Amino acid sequence: MGASVSEAASNGSRLDLLVAMRSRVATAVDNPDTPQRDLASLTRRLLEIANEIATIEAQQELAEDSIAAAAAMPDEPFDSAAI
Question: pTM for the complete prediction?
Fold first, then answer.
């Protein structure tokens, strides 16, 4: 299991915090004792958190892919005549 919300808020990244919040909100949504009046707002917040996580992960992949692509690209042969 991941970090608690308070642990993630104190020691983690924004992504860690969002993942902990998603887990906490999902637990509340699944709990049969959660009042019906709260389910709509909890479900909406769960979707918002999931979208924020997806956005951060996509940005991280893009950044990693850009670096990996640049590192993997071979150098062109040196042509002294081009100078």
Answer: 0.72
